[in-house]
Design goal:
5 helices, 5 strands, alpha/beta, globular, Rossmann fold
Length: about 130
């Protein structure tokens, strides 16, 4: 199965996404911010990056820009709950515009997560 890097500052989301993806046979690494994610990408081959958008430190938009600049075509799934004052579509639309291959609004259920992960993986494999 796929090697997936999950970047999210929320420990509950990280844990839930990691457990779900492992259950479906994927190899998963989790980190809590964009800087750590970029460090993993510099050392490891990854088939998909799942990144939150709104995080302290290096947030998701900046992380996506850096991934596109340094790691080229690795598929990216951007996830966001939109924060306290905005709808999720705002940050997710920004993520699409700067290079995310797919987006997913929080909260999400397991089938929706798996579908969102499978689509960019299938496109990359084609």
């Amino acid at each position: 199965m796929a090697r997936i890097l999950v970047i999210d500052d929320d420990p509950f989301v990280r844990s839930m996404v990691e457990r779900t993806l492992r259950t479906f046979g994927h190899r998963v690494r989790v980190v809590e911010d964009g800087e750590q994610g970029l460090e993993v990408l510099a050392r490891c081959d990854v088939d998909l990056v799942v990144t939150d958008i709104l995080m302290p430190g290096k947030e998701g938009i900046e992380t996506i820009v850096d991934i596109r600049s340094w790691h080229g075509p690795v598929p990216i799934l951007a996830i966001s709950g939109g924060g306290a004052t905005s709808a999720p579509e705002g940050p997710l639309e920004d993520a699409r515009l700067i290079g995310a291959d797919a987006t997913l609004a929080k909260p999400f259920d397991v089938p929706t997560l798996i579908g969102a992960v499978d689509r960019p993986l299938e496109t990359a494999a084609a």
